[in-house]
Amino acid sequence: MTQKTDVFDKISEEQTKNQHMLEKLISVAHTGSVYSEPMTQGDYTIITASELTAGIGFGYGMGKGKDEDEEDENNGGGGGGGGGAYGRPVAVVSIGPDGVQVKEVVDPTKIALAFFTTVGAMLLMLRQMFQMLRK
Question: Which residues contact 14 (CB under 8 A, 6 or more apart)?
């Protein structure tokens, strides 16, 4: 009976840790994470807008079974989790005498990755098409 209690105690500890981690991730998603503090230079005020992505995953498991050299069944269990947050600038808001302007921040890495992924998929498709024509 104490083995089951130990397993449930361990799972309860893991749940507490995961809840704490989730609370940390949620605390990241506030207005200050998306919009920067306004910076003023002369007649212009600049505010950056960011994209924020956060994720978390966790799981638990329990089971029982026999070892080959033992007659009694053993109980076991465990759990774990992880998470992360990512932010990147997506726009710059400029406020000045000419009015408000919003300028997009271009991410060349994303564009390059999309390009090479598309080219790779097209080449694979062409290869398959030529192989089917040969048959």
Answer: 58, 60, 78, 79, 80, 81
How many separate domains does the chain show?
2
The reply to whether 54 and 75 lie within a common domain is yes
pTM: 0.50
Query: Could you read off the pLDDT of 43-64 as tens digits, one per residue?
Result: 999 999 988 887 777 777 777 7
CA dihedral in degrees (85, 31, 91, 45; nearest 10)? -140
Residue 115: give the domain boundaries: 107-135
Residues contacting 19, CB < 8 A, separation 6+: none
Element (H, E) at 120: helix 108-134
